[in-house]
Amino acid sequence: MVTTQTAHRYKGKRNRLDKPELLAPAGNLEKLKFAVHYGADAVYIGGQKYGLRSGADNFSFAEMKEGVEFAKQYGAKVFVATNIYAHNEDVSGLEDYLRELENAGIAAIIAADPIIIETAQRVAPKLEVHLSTQQSTMNWQAVQFWKEEGLPRVVLAREASLEEIEQIKAHVDVEIEAFIHGAMCSSFSGRCVLSNHFTDRDSNRGGCCQSCRWKYDIYEDDIQMVGMEADQFTMGSKDLCMLEHIPDLIDVGVDSFKIEGRMKSLHYVATVVNAYRQAIDSYMADPENYELKQVWQDDIQKAANRPLNTGFFYDTPGAEDHIYEPEDKAAPYDFAGVVVSYDEASGTAVIQQRNHFKPGQEVEFFGPNGTFFKQTVEAIADTDGNVLDAARHPLQHVVIRTESPVKPMDMMRKRVR
Amino acid sequence: MATKPELLIDAASLADMERLIEAGADAFVVGEARYGMRLPGEFDIGAMAAAVKLAHANRVSVYAAVNNVMDNATVDTLPNYIGALADAGVDAVVFGDPAVLMAARASAPAMKLHWNAEMTSTNYATANYWGRRGASRVVLARELNLEQIIGVKENTELAVQVQVHGMTNIYHSKRPLVHNYFEHQNKDGALENVPVHGKREDGLYLIESERPDERFPIYEDANGTHIMSSDDLCMIENLHELMEVNIDSFRIEGLLKSIAYNEAVVRAYRSAIDAYCSDPLGYAFNEDWLESIVQLQNPARELSYGFFYKEQVY
């Protein structure tokens, strides 16, 4: 694992001069709005069918339209994941669904199954089709195949290294999207049916129950190979984080930087997008003098669900890239509230409560482009001016004084330990 | 007399091939680990030519496994490799990665192609998509049920291959997970060298605490880490249900089994196929066929119907 920041210029070369796309997950309409507001150039969402997150909120067509309208104000695009491997019974209905996506103004679908790709090209030609990582594409010849099939973009397998990505870019003129942050399948994507075997849930149609993160005992000839007190075997991987290596990713020519996490919280999405937005903009503005800022890394840690690593980008993951010990799961911060409005005259803000907070607690406010300050919560009142001992109720609007001006959609987090 | 479905198996060596031909196999899938996935033996181009010679002398087919997830380095060698397979006389190339299709178009345009994307070959429309791009056979995912298999067969011109016996792969990672785990156990440096464990012959398996009776084989090779099913698929009792709908090829997975076991399995299925095809209406399942398999079956591994009669949710 590469832990120190690598030198600027991947092997002394620079393969792209324009800014890459920052692509963020949006599990629902609110997350979409925040992802875009915090700097995503594009977001990907799931609809009611054909997506691999059957447990997520997922968008209705009306919500998609609203999301597309909102994103348009920022010049951002909305993609829809239609990334299942279809079964016979999924084939009918596909045409209508894809036409609805096109009508909703969706810019692209992310698809793995060729029948979804081909159907979209036939019935909804305004939809771009991006090849999903579920196809586990990691060579230039396969990328060339998909380009010839009319796809403008390929999302590579998470097993592709920076060197392999550079080779692919050198062979084929097509957009390359790569996951840069978030949880990863430890298997080749699509090549895992643990859920099917353990729980009769079809992993390649969204039923994944994350059996790779369960714990197992490993045996040889009826003998357990490792003592009872030792850590058990697991396939579970640390999460990907390429924040330290933005220059390398830009220099090899990755066109779209993808953040994983349609099931993740609003706080997670805003925080991670914010950090990558600043890193990308900072590098593009002045590559020669680019410096990785500690505050971006600190922010990522405030939202991290698991320990982080660099996946396959620099080398094959080793023992240190997997999670054998009990997970020290929660980040030391909790999402506490969202700024609804700010009154300059009184220096007070209306906050929509997202988690319990009370006077005396230390909180942090942050917004797009790295605006940030800490303060202690003083008195809390409801919107009628009644003093409260705490902000107890989810989504309740409360009024507090803020030490600096804040804006709507700024966020407030509290330290929990 | 009904058209006979093909009985297809892998083989670890030419010697094993001879025994399995004698037992009644119609076709073999063999290859080398650089290009093919989860093969019980290495057949380089020389061995492949010898396999074809042996097989064709017995009116048996040989399919080359070229179904790995390919990387750039391997892709650069594919045109030569597929050209050499054509020269060796193989009857078809089994592929999952479209790079293989591209290479075959360029260097062996007459080569038959079998599309096998393992767990992601799941519907007739996608089978037909690959058919329009040159595939003549679809190898279906083992996670489909009988109704879905029939649905594919009814809606495609491609030959349909279905696994009827043996274990199935349920997880494939590029990561060396077994090696990593033992390295983690040795993180304090207690051992001088991390034990080299995890090769196929080491016989390792996983147990999950809520399923103490299920043993999931796990091994590592050049293509990563493979976890296999805890049960062995066995459709011999109901093979007529697949023959009635004219499934074209029945695959036996011989991986991690002895040659004696595979021989017995081939004999049993051979008997069932021959009996059915000579008199479909008068066909009756013979308990002895199953019994000949059960006698050699590892008692720790259940014989099951796999997903043939299951409904899955998502």
From TrEMBL, chain A:
Pfam families: Peptidase_U32, Peptidase_U32_C. Residues 333-413 form the Peptidase family U32 C-terminal domain. It comes from the Bacteria. GO terms for molecular function: peptidase activity. GO terms for biological process: proteolysis. InterPro entries: Peptidase_U32, Peptidase_U32_C, RNA/ubiquinone_mod_enzymes. Keywords: Hydrolase, Protease. PANTHER family: PEPTIDASE U32 FAMILY, TRNA HYDROXYLATION PROTEIN P. Belongs to the peptidase U32 family. This is Collagenase-like protease. It comes from Paenibacillus sacheonensis. The lineage of its organism: Bacteria, Bacillati, Bacillota, Bacilli, Bacillales.
From TrEMBL, chain B:
InterPro entries: Peptidase_U32, RNA/ubiquinone_mod_enzymes. It comes from the Bacteria. Pfam families: Peptidase_U32. PANTHER family: PEPTIDASE U32 FAMILY (PTHR30217), TRNA HYDROXYLATION PROTEIN P2 (PTHR30217:SF7). This is U32 family peptidase. It comes from Paenibacillus sacheonensis.
